[in-house]
Specification:
- The chain is an alpha+beta fold.
- It is 29% helix and 54% strand.
- It contains three helices and eleven strands; from the N terminus they run H-E-H-E-E-H-E-E-E-E-E-E-E-E.
- It has helices spanning 2-48, 63-76, 97-110; strands at 51-56, 81-85, 90-95, 116-127, 130-142, 146-164, 167-188, 191-209, 212-228, 233-242, 249-260.
- Strands 5-4-11-10 form a four-stranded antiparallel sheet, with no helix packed on it. Strands 6-7-8-9 form a four-stranded antiparallel sheet, with no helix packed on it. The chain has a three-stranded antiparallel sheet with strand order 1-3-2, with helices on one face.
- A hairpin with a 6-residue loop joins strand 10 and strand 11.
- The longest helix is centred in the N-terminal third of the chain and has 47 residues, at 2-48.
């Protein structure tokens, strides 16, 4: 009977020690869990800390350019808040420190001055029994932009008339005649694309329509897209223009050269 009691005590003692070890392990685990949760909470708070900053656009010359840059920022930073202020030419950003740093890196890459080029059209005119004549017309064209040159006269054309209280009022529209060049440049130094539209127009006769004399206008136009390198001269084609008041034609060869501006 005595041995049975001792064994029971020993068994209960072992159980108590085991229970104590288990209790300590649970406490340690619980403490570690609390520490881990605290670290997670601190980490989350740190990751979500946000601030506001204003970033200014320096080189975007048009509203379309600015919106393209802001679209780029929104695609790169989908979780940040971005808003473009046109009058200030600025972008408001609300995001984390990392997002603001990335936004500045994106702007440094895309908000750069647009490169401009000197585009020179050369016209070599032959025919009419005269010596060859050469004319150069140069214009400054920024990449992605369009430039236009007009050289000639403006001819009035009567488009209608009305009688108001015994007073005849005539409506007149003016038409540009002569040489018109429109150039659009895109790409960069290694790959430039030039869209050209070269036209010449002149009056060749007059005709009477309902008692009003209107000029008959002859037009010749050359259009095309050219791929060329900086410093290269390329022939665009030729214009065959009927001679004014003479027999025969004038042949005008058109070439173009693109060079760095400045």
């Amino acid at each position: 009977m005595m041995r049975t009691c001792d064994e029971g005590v020993r068994r209960r003692g072992i159980s108590a020690r085991v229970l104590g070890i288990v209790t300590v392990m649970v406490a340690i685990a619980a403490s570690a869990g609390v520490t881990a949760r605290a670290a997670d909470v601190n980490g989350t708070v740190k990751a979500e800390a946000k601030s506001y900053e204003t970033l200014y656009l320096n080189s975007a010359t048009t509203r379309s350019d600015a919106f393209d840059i802001v679209t780029d920022l929104r695609n790169m930073l989908p979780k940040a808040k971005l808003f473009y202020v046109p009058r200030q030419h600025a972008v408001s950003i609300y995001g984390t420190a990392d997002e603001i740093v990335l936004a500045k890196q994106v702007l440094a890459g895309v908000d750069r001055p647009v490169k401009s080029y000197k585009v020179t059209y050369t016209f070599t005119e032959t025919g009419d029994g005269q010596a060859a004549k050469t004319q150069h017309i140069a214009m400054l064209v920024a990449s992605g932009e369009t430039a236009e040159v007009k050289q000639g006269t403006r001819v009035p054309i009567v488009t209608g008339s009305s009688d108001s209280g015994g007073k005849v009022e005539t409506q007149v529209q003016y038409l540009d005649l002569g040489l018109i060049i429109r150039a659009k440049l895109s790409g960069g130094p290694g790959h430039l694309e030039l869209d050209s539209r070269v036209g010449r127009s002149q009056t060749v006769a007059k005709q009477t329509v309902e008692g009003i004399q209107d000029p008959v206008i002859q037009q010749t136009t050359l259009t095309g897209t050219s791929t060329l390198a900086v410093g290269e001269t390329m022939s665009l084609g030729s214009l065959d223009i009927p001679a004014s008041g003479m027999v025969g034609e004038r042949h005008v060869n058109v070439a173009v050269t693109v060079e760095p501006a400045g």
